[in-house]
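FYI - complex with pyridoxal-5'-phosphate, inputs then prediction.
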Amino acid sequence: MYDVKRHLSEVRRSLPQGVRLVAISKFHPEEYIMAAYEEGQRIFGESHEQELARKVEILPKDIEWHFIGHLQTNKVKYIAPYISMIEAVDSLKLLREIEKQAAKADRVVRVLLELHIAEEATKYGLTLDACRQLLSDGEWRQMPHVQICGLMMMASNVDDEAQICQEFQTAANFFNEVKQQYFADDPAFCERSWGMSSDYHLAVSHGSTMVRIGTTIFGPRVY
Ligand SMILES: *Cc1c(COP(=O)(O)O)cnc(C)c1O
């Protein structure tokens, strides 16, 4: 078995204080998640609703699950009763559905708005202007069951470190802009979720508060 515990503690040691680790466990077996759990890891990220539902069923109840993938509106109802954070909100339509399903479940669901800054890596996410539009439109203020806690993004999957740094910096600057304009009085709006296995060192030097690391902890995914 891949040495999850050793790799997890190496990652932990390399993270500065105040940066939270989301262990991305998609496509990895329950035993791997339990190995990390035994080392004290409690936040795990998954990107497929059915796989997540299966794992939630059998794994310890004090795990905080983050949904990190593209979420279809028709799947929101399945995860709303238990999800700790939905990291990749990329439309007002999705936000509305989360509000509706969280209300039904009588919960407040924490979310991040996903930015599309990278040249590729993902076709999802809000452009900076679309995100400005969503916030200035203000409908989110009438959503008592949704708490917007910050921003999430993925940098381009390239070797050019200067480009990656520039994308993280763009995200960090944009965070400051919207924090000041819309969330100055809201301490819950504080998360900057950027950084994955290949680029988390660069991400933490550009203001990341939350890194999403899979491969470095669990090894290559078997699809
Ligand atoms: C899979 C995934 C990760 C983790 O990627 P690794 O390269 O395995 O660390 C992080 N964020 C998102 C959105 C992902 O889908």
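The pocket of pyridoxal-5'-phosphate is lined by residues 24, 26, 47, 68-69, 154, 196-198, 212-215 (CB under 6 Å). The CA atoms of residues 108 and 145 lie 4 Å apart.
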